Inverse folding.
């Protein structure tokens, strides 16, 4: 029996015993400015977590949403993840600019599947208070099966892995200015040969889009994006596929197809909490040099990183507030803590300023 045949038989059972811990977006980079994502390792435990542009969730296991039970994809969890709550801030981006979404490291190479990105207009009230069930999403990016010469083939997630678990999306230049939620999602199909086997990893972010575009595309509410029987959801990727249909509504006509690339971080950004634009603040403690070769299916990246971690506040320079993040894999904002606090490492991805003597 072939390896693929064995996996088709045993794969779903094997993966059902594994803790659902695969990934989330750690930060978003816009024109070199990095905005922190929702840190599942600490923010759910805080009474008042930091203001970020990412929607919050009590999910602390990097888990997924899957079409099981009577609701299938009708559960509101599919919109922006489990029990997601509005981000309290937003970032500003111009129509036509590119947004780089950095996932946590080591997305599993076995979790083949598409990558899909949507926008939904929040209206004049802004995205910080919008009712997520009323958001109507239109697709601006969707990449699925790239090469099926040898099943299970090369998928969008393989490109993401080749780029250090990152994905680039262009904001369509024709989009009208306004407040939008970006919904970015990986869909893992390694167990999708049987009903309820697909795994969805939706992530949401608040953006204020500027520019002179006029398009206001019609969208679909999040709970109507997919059905468990969609051909791109219920599918056996271990057999040869002549075609693959990326799940979700039709791609917006003004969407721009781009070659994947990385984005160097030059500064850290502070989310906007009211009207007006965002600007980078402070300085970075991570220097990144990137050599990139972009082709339709692969990218090669060389990164040199130096990071300095300061455990107590020094003389000058930006400092982090008590209980704020001060370090971790990919962290580029201040690593020095305010007076009376020290930077303590909680895990490889997160260090926090805690009061000294505690």
């Amino acid at each position: 029996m072939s390896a693929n045949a064995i996996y088709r038989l045993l794969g779903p059972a094997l993966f059902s015993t594994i803790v659902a811990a695969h990934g989330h977006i750690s930060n978003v980079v816009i024109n070199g400015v990095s905005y922190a994502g929702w840190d599942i390792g600490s923010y759910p435990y805080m009474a008042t977590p930091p203001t970020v542009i990412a929607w919050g969730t009590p999910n602390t296991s990097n888990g997924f949403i899957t079409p099981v039970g009577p609701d299938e994809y009708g559960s509101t969890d599919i919109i922006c993840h489990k029990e997601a709550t509005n981000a309290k801030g937003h970032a500003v981006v111009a129509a036509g600019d590119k947004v780089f979404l950095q996932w946590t490291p080591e997305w599993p190479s076995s979790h083949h599947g598409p990558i899909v990105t949507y926008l939904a207009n929040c209206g004049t009230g802004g995205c910080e208070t919008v009712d997520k069930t009323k958001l109507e999403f239109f697709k601006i990016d969707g990449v699925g099966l790239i090469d099926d010469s040898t099943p299970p083939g090369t998928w969008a997630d393989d490109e993401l892995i080749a780029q250090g678990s990152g994905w680039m999306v262009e904001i369509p230049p024709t989009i009208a200015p306004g407040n939008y939620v970006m919904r970015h999602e990986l869909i893992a199909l390694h167990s999708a040969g049987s009903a309820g086997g697909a795994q969805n990893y939706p992530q949401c972010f608040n953006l204020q889009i500027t520019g002179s575009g006029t398009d206001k595309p019609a969208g679909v509410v999040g709970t109507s994006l997919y059905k468990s029987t969609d051909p791109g959801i219920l599918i056996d990727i271990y057999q040869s596929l002549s075609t693959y249909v990326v799940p979700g509504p039709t791609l917006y006509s003004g969407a721009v197809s781009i070659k994947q690339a990385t984005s160097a971080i030059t500064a850290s950004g502070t989310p906007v909490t009211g009207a007006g634009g965002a600007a980078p603040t402070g300085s970075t403690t991570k220097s990144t040099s990137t050599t990139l070769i972009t082709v339709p299916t692969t990218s090669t990246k060389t990164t040199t990183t130096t990071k300095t971690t300061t455990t107590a506040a020094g003389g000058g320079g930006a400092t982090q507030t008590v209980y704020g993040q001060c370090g971790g894999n990919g962290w580029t904002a201040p690593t020095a803590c305010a007076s009376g606090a020290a930077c303590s490492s909680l895990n490889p991805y997160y260090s926090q300023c805690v009061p000294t003597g505690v």
In short: The two ends are 59 Å apart (CA to CA). The longest strand covers residues 199-210. The first helix runs from residue 3 to 16.
